[in-house]
Amino acid sequence: MKIIRLFNELLGTYGDRGNAEILQYRLAARNIDCEIIDISYNQKIPTDGDFYLIGGAEDKAQILASKKINENKILKSISEEGKVILAVCAGYQILGESFYAQDEKHEGARIFPIESTPGVGRMVGDLLLETEFAGKLTGFENHGGVTKYLDAKLRPFAKVIKGNGNGDKKVDGAIIRNTFGTYAHGPILARNPKFADYLISLAISSPITELKDSISDQYYQARIKALS
Ligand code: GLN
Q1: How far apart are CA 224 and CA 1, in angstroms?
Q2: What is the pLDDT of residue 214?
Q3: Of 62, 86, 98, 182, which is best to mutate to test ligand 1, by the most ligand atoms within 8 angstroms of its C-beta?
Q4: Which end of the chain is less enclosed by CB atoms within 10 A, N or C?
Q5: Is the dihedral of CA 91, 198, 18, 36 positive or negative?
Q6: Segments in the chain below pLDDT 50
């Protein structure tokens, strides 16, 4: 399998690159071969990936990354094909209709019917979320933008138990097909092994065996306990 990690040099500020290593580790534990392919913003986005990972960034880098993504509609058609895409924070905002960065409005990739605008202050801190597919999740948020749904039927990524999420302290992120957007850094897949396995089961279109990995499970439980 192929994990496409997009634009590390721009979208690598918050450590989200670690999501790729977690997927690779958990696939290898099921004897599934997998390579991580780093795509620089100067390269074309390959269409033969199984997972696409897009991380968070500071404003300037976010603007450049979105311009590169918008040069063509590749990512939108990858999402429409039902491939697994995980986009965190700036990555999530980029997949919307528009976002603000450096006091200006920028066009997004129009995968999610959302728009992100400047909030009142920066939202920084722990997130405790509740999802339908992987139970409780923890993460870390650090963003100035707040995100509004432009379609009331859009499916949230999670309910917010602690933290801000999209900005209203009620919901975080969005899901469309197998494209997931969230404000949770962490990296989110390192903190939440069940969510990593859920993404793997979507990519291979079948349930996967449970992985006995006491260290990541203990770490997960400890984080949940600390935030509950
Ligand atoms: N620049 C965006 C914001 O502050 C995203 C930040 C991030 O990716 N952590 O809203």
Answers
A1: 31
A2: 80
A3: 62
A4: C
A5: negative
A6: none
